[in-house]
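Moderator note: this is an archived Q&A kept for reference. The question asked for a predicted structure of one protein chain; the sequence and the answer are reproduced below.
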Amino acid sequence: MAEMNTKDFLIGTLIGGLVGASAALLLAPKSGKELRTDLNEQALLAREKTSQFTSNAYEKGNEWATYAKEKSANLAKAVNEQSHQVIDKVKDVTALTQEEAENIKESAEDLTAEVKESGEKIVENVKKEVDEIQANLEDEKVKN
């Protein structure tokens, strides 16, 4: 069974009213002049009601269109604000990550310099000890 919407109902009501009024006028025992006058009055009345229905439909349609525009504008504004907040947060996280990476790089460079310096000192100390051992060995050879 097909669903009946408001538009179909209003059209059906209007047509039913016109048919009923026409049938009542045609079946009533009146003279031709009276019948024409009644038909003209009913036609004018039907035209006025049709104009009222049309006017009301346009008003309601405009109200709903305005409402939909406002809601969609509000939704677009909210989405825009949320996206800007997300972008700002991503920028903040990126900046913090870059700063942390720079700190780690500097720490690694400092540690590398310290290890290199310590390694040079160790090599220097080992050379001194080797030189001392060689000197001691030579002194021992000379004594013997």
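Archived answer notes: The two ends are 126 Å apart (CA to CA).
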